Amino acid sequence: MIAENFSYAAPSSIQEAITMLHEYGEDAKILAGGHSLIPMMKLRFASPTHLIDINNIPGLSYIREEDGFLKIGAMTREVDVEDSELIKSKYHLFGDATKLIADPQVRNFGTLGGNLAHGDAANDHPAVMMSLGASVIITGNEGSREVSLDDFFHGFYTTAVEHGEILTEIKIPVAKGRFGSAYHKAERKVGDYATAGVAATLQFDESGVCNRVGLGLTNVSPTPMRVSRAEELLMGSRVSEQDIAAAAKMAAEDCSPSEDLRGNVDYKRHLVKVITKRMLTKALGRAK
Amino acid sequence: MAIDIKLKVNGTEHSATVEPRTLLVHLIRENLSMTGTHIGCDTSSCGACTVLIDGKSAKSCTILAVQANGKEITTVEGMATAEGLHPLQEGFHLNHALHCGFCTPGMMLRAVELLEKNPNPTEEEIRWGIAGNLCRCTGYNNIVKAIQWASAKMQDKELPSTEPEFV
């Protein structure tokens, strides 16, 4: 299968890429890892007239802790996250998630920025990032702005990234003290989109009281969602078995899955409940 | 608007003029006439089109030829050397790790990177490592054995038996 015709450019700076976006208009698309966009173009679900390949722009791939934030460059590949010692030592949910994203070849190319900017509730990083309280840096002609992930997803394939802008960085408050996180999705086969997925993040102060919590859900709502009601319940608690059970029940109640080939609504709600319970328990165990 | 690109395939420099929408797999098969790289699903699921781009395993049906500009590509045609077969090719041969052979080039090139990053993988790591390559004939067991055999060979370790197991 071959995509419709388009023109191709590979700028060497962000500014050059933004200028091209303005020049080419609404039908131009940014090409990052390309492993969501190119299949869509081959199937002709997407037919941009111009592709602006940002793979040659230096300085967009990094994972570092700086000024109280874990900062991840938008062009950081899934494989870089898998291999990062910093991520492996502290942010365990990334290891859980990346292993379940597509397959090794796809993870060699797919980027974290692309996974978010694609705006698909079936992708895994939206829930992961939401549970971590992440925000993204979006760069345009007027400079950069920061948008919380809570305000990022506007609808099906639609995000806060406006035309003429590029998502350049993901910013996550650093893990402090007793911090634990976990992610899992149920999938029909390895590398499939989630039937349902849950990301859980917990952090405790010295007295064992929860002072940071995040619960994000994958593919059980039209846009990626966090379970605010359950987060409020857990915040300030000691996250007992009863608290976890109550939070899992809320997650199942508050999500809004739709029936598809992966399962019906009741089944998906049940999965959300079971996986939420397991991931909160796992995150709690990792918060040592 | 066609674009001029240059790339190295199996150590040889090539230049080509391609439409931006030309896929890397089509460039390899049609312009360069190397048909060892297969097109299976054409939707980046099956891995039959796997090649190495600068040493990283990649699904060439989901990468544009223009993205390979300036890169080094390895296809199955570049695996054997004057000294003989690559240890993975030898392992696949001796362990009967193929029936129809359609998945084999992609499977082996994926295994090249797997063993490069993890020279001594466990069975579980091999199975996760080839999760992006589908085989509809073998049931994977002999493919796993072939990769284990190549891993031993590449490290000059004692070679596992290649006798078939009857159960």
Keyphrases for this structure?
heterodimer; A: 288 residues; Uridine Diphospho-n-acetylenolpyruvylglucosamine Reductase, domain 2; Uridine Diphospho-n-acetylenolpyruvylglucosamine Reductase, domain 3; Enolase-like, domain 1; four-stranded antiparallel β-sheet; 11 helices; 14 strands; 35% helix; globular; B: DNA polymerase, domain 1; 2 domains; 5 helices
Describe this structure in words.
The complex is a heterodimer of chains A (288) and B (167). Chain A has eleven helices and 14 strands. By secondary structure, chain A is of the alpha+beta class. Chain A has three domains: 47 residues, Uridine Diphospho-n-acetylenolpyruvylglucosamine Reductase, domain 2; 111 residues, 2-Layer Sandwich (Uridine Diphospho-n-acetylenolpyruvylglucosamine Reductase, domain 3), CATH 3.30.465.10; 108 residues, Enolase-like, domain 1. In chain A, helix 2 links the parallel strand 2 and strand 3. In chain A, helix 10 packs antiparallel against helix 11. Chain A is globular, with a radius of gyration of 19 Å. Chain B is α+β, with helices and mostly antiparallel strands. Chain B is 31% helix and 15% strand. Chain B has a five-stranded mixed sheet with strand order 2-1-5-3-4, sandwiched between helices. In chain B, strand 1 and strand 2 form a beta hairpin. The longest helix of chain B has 14 residues. At the A-B interface, helix 2 and helix 6 of A face strand 4 and helix 3 of B.
